[in-house]
UniProtKB/TrEMBL annotation:
It comes from the Bacteria. It comes from Streptococcus suis. Keywords: Lyase, Metal-binding. It is an enzyme of class 4 (lyase). Residues 8-184 form the Class II aldolase/adducin N-terminal domain. This is L-fuculose phosphate aldolase.
Length: 214
């Protein structure tokens, strides 16, 4: 099988989305792109994350052709593929139906810099224009709204995030959901104070060297 390591990672983080309360049922999808062989591994359509087997993962090329796999790829496969076509900094993409992020997506309200951790995704999180799920229009809307960002809300739908690997893409989903919850609660009590662009730029730089370094 192609991309055996990536298949295991997709199954691991698919389950984690559910156990951490970041999506429900079969909602959401995950992918990884291998730049050496130009192939994308993506979760299959409509299968419970706890039922997906390694052989169920679908392998596609950059033209959207299935290279390996008997299952249908996620209906949002083009939304993943277009990111890899346009972004050299992203090798993993996750789409999820988070609760508070989707609240903002339904309101068509971007998440401003109300918390410094939003910097993991950029200066803010925009909302992509609405389009029917599984369409090229939705994929293109998401790609446009996610330019120079690592996450975007999909209007009346959910969230999309990308990073260099699944661990970091998952962390972005998790942090944006936390910040979305804080923002929604704060809005119910008053008007949140928004951090200036300069502070968010500083945070983005600090995050580049955050954590344990050798």
């Amino acid at each position: 099988m192609f991309m055996e390591k990536e298949r295991k990672e997709l199954i691991k983080y698919g389950k984690k989305l559910v156990t951490e309360g970041l999506t429900k049922g079969t909602g959401g999808n995950l992918s990884v792109f291998n730049r050496e062989n130009g192939l994308m591994a993506i979760t299959p359509s409509g299968i419970d994350f706890f039922e997906i087997k390694e052989e169920d993962i679908v392998i596609m090329d950059l033209e959207g052709q299935v290279v390996e796999g008997e299952k249908l790829p996620s209906s949002e496969w083009y939304m993943h593929l277009i990111q890899y076509q346009q972004r050299e900094d992203l090798d993993a993409v996750i789409h999820a139906h988070t609760t508070y992020g989707t609240v903002l997506a339904v309101l068509r309200e971007p998440l401003p810099a109300s918390h410094y951790m939003i910097a993991v995704a950029g200066k803010d999180v925009r909302v992509a224009e609405y389009a029917t799920y599984g369409t090229k229009e939705l994929a293109e809307n998401a790609a446009e709204a996610m330019k120079d960002r690592r996450a975007v809300f999909l209007a009346n739908h959910g969230i999309l995030a990308g990073a260099q690997d699944l661990l970091n893409a998952f962390n972005i989903i998790e942090e944006v959901e936390y910040c979305s919850k804080i923002y929604c609660v704060a809005k119910s009590m008053g008007e949140p104070i928004i951090l200036p662009d300069e502070e968010m730029e500083l945070m983005a730089e600090k995050f580049k060297t955050y954590g344990q370094r050798k």
